[in-house]
Amino acid sequence: MHEPTVLFVDDEINILKALQRLLRADEMNVLCASRPSEALELLERHPAQVVVSDQRMPELSGVDFLAQVRERHPDIVRIMLTGYTEMKVAVDAINRGEIFRLITKPWNDDELKATLRQAFDHATMKHEIKRLNQVTREQNFKLQDMNRNLEAKVRDRTKQVAEKHEQLRTAYIQTIRALSEAIDAKDAYTRGHSERVGVYASKIAREMSFPKDVIERVYIAGLLHDVGKIGVRDAVITKPDRLTAEEYDEIKQHPEIGYRILEPVEFLRDVAPCVRHHHEWYDGSNRGYPDRLRGDQIPLPSRIILVADTVEAMTSDRPYRKGLSLDKVVSEIHKFTGTQFDPKVAEAFLRLLDRDGDGFVQHDSKFDIYSFIQD
Ligand SMILES: [Fe+2]
Q1: Residues whose beta carbons lie less than 5 angstroms from ion ligand 1
Q2: Distance in Å, CA 259 to ligand 1 centroid
């Protein structure tokens, strides 16, 4: 704010001189004008906080002059200096809110000084309110700006996290696939077997309208169902001739070995039981192993994998035979539905086969479980 300045307007020079004398010792600039037009000009060059005007002047009345001041400089505090004869005009002006105070002629020096002090305080307060409003507005703008930046940052971070999540999921699946390939590598004839079982099983699970997380678990359990074969002697696994009873017992260990391999892995804990029970029979008969669970006791992914595993094994070439036709597969599934296979799983598989025919067993090397789930 500029230094305190008051402008007096009066056509009587003596009055202006008296006012100047009165305020000489006070810490304020005192400007004087004997005509309203001169006063308006002066205000353009010298900012003042307070204007004190006489009412009765030849050129323009005080009320009209102060109205012009108000229009051009709305922040200036306006005071009227008037004799008793013009009191009514001045009081009206006060009532209309056009002027701040009235000083009567002849004035009392102390009262005049007090009124001026109030006028300067009023001007300071108005100025301060205006400044604070401005600060508030600027801070609001800044806040809005910060909010916008923050929103953009949150969007960026969310995108980065989603990308990281995607990368981790891909790495997770790649790791599991590498493991499943290691299992199949024990036997040249089973190359790709685990991957195909995973794909067939997830197709059946999706046909049964299971939620995405279940389909994903079925796929992963399919990839890993024979992981326990790592713990079975190669000689037994690749033996082309009929297995002895002992050798068959050894093979039958693989679901439990697989379970023991996967169980300690935190993110495969759900998958471990599915692997353990993928050779159980639906009827709970002793042809199933290792625990002879029946019906719903057998984890759903295990029941699905059993069908997918059978289909894959039958349609693949073996050292002693070519892959069998789908007709043979269908009759085998029919034959063992309700004993070995869960009828609902068998039904879903047969539905898929009806619809897709050979397409069901066609191998897509680019199979991606996550885009498959989204379809
Ligand atoms: Fe198996």
Answers
A1: 226
A2: 12
